[in-house]
Amino acid sequence: MHALWVWAHPHASSLNGRLREVGLDALGAAGWSVDEIDLYRMRFNPVLADQGGADVRRHQELLGAADLLVVQFPLWWYSMPAILKGWIDRVFESGFAFDVPDPETGKPLKYGKGGLAGKRALTVVTAGDRAATLGPRGISGHIEDVLWPLLHGTFWYTGMDPLRPHLITNADTVDAEAMARIEADLTVRLAGVMTEPRIDYRPMAEEHYDHTIRLHDSVAPGEDGLSAHRQG
Predict the structure, then answer these.
(1) Closest CA to 114 of 148, 156, 164, 151
(2) How far does CA 97 lie from the centroid of its chain?
(3) % of the chain with per-residue pLDDT over 70
(4) Beta strands of the chain (E only): which ranges?
(5) Ranges for the Flavodoxin-like fold domain (predicted)?
(6) How far apart are CA 79 and CA 146, in angstroms?
């Protein structure tokens, strides 16, 4: 199996830097081959001005060859760093990741289908706040809702199988004991990354959505939030 590890943190000596080392070692020990994109160190240009470019084509080649995409970043203002958002803006181009036509109907494939179908996508995310704030009933919202634009609107939209975010909280106060636990948890998670169930988002199919891409009234009746778009 082959993985692409994309990470965005300005300091290689940070907690994120250590997580990247642990993750790459864990995948290597499990027999994976891995390509790495270190956005800050390579000074990736995140500004989408024109389509394409040699750097974009190279990153598309790396992504196209991967069975697993790991995207690692600190949670900043409930989102990813701008350099990572720019990487997605530039690399996930029309005709490559989306706007790929269905060979039978000619309509664009999306939401469970698309240019990146068959791949899995895992986010490794650090946050300074406590775990409860990013869980059920937490003031920040559940982490899967906070990352909805990435998990559902990017990964699932382009056909990838989004996996539950691997969230590390209290990132500013990690001691040696906590670090050992964090490293062990990430190693175990990566060992089973290809067999764990994906987030059970609904495919864009007539049994779920009408012609306006709105859920049928009979689907998840009484639910208006993001959870209605999950089958579980």
Answers:
(1) 156
(2) 14
(3) 100
(4) 2-7, 33-38, 68-74, 120-126, 161-162, 166-168
(5) 1-182
(6) 7
What is the residue whose two structure tokens read 């080649």?
Answer: 61
**How many whole angstroms separate alpha carbon 136 and alpha carbon 210?**
30
Amino acid at 28: G
In a domain, 231, yes or no: no
- 92: its two tokens: 């996930």
214 falls within a domain? no
Identify which of 172, 146, 121 has the alpha carbon closest to the alpha carbon of residue 3.
Answer: 121
Q: Judge whether 219 lies within some domain.
A: no
| Tokens of residue 130, six digits | 């406590």
How many helices (H) and strands (E) would you count in the chain?
6, 6
pTM of the predicted protein model? 0.95
CATH of the domain at 155: 3.40.50.360
Q: What is the pLDDT of residues 173-218, one digit of tens each?
A: 989 999 999 999 999 999 999 999 999 999 999 999 999 999 999 9
186 vs 7, 25, 166, 227, CA distance in Å?
15, 11, 8, 26
Token couple for 68:
């697993």
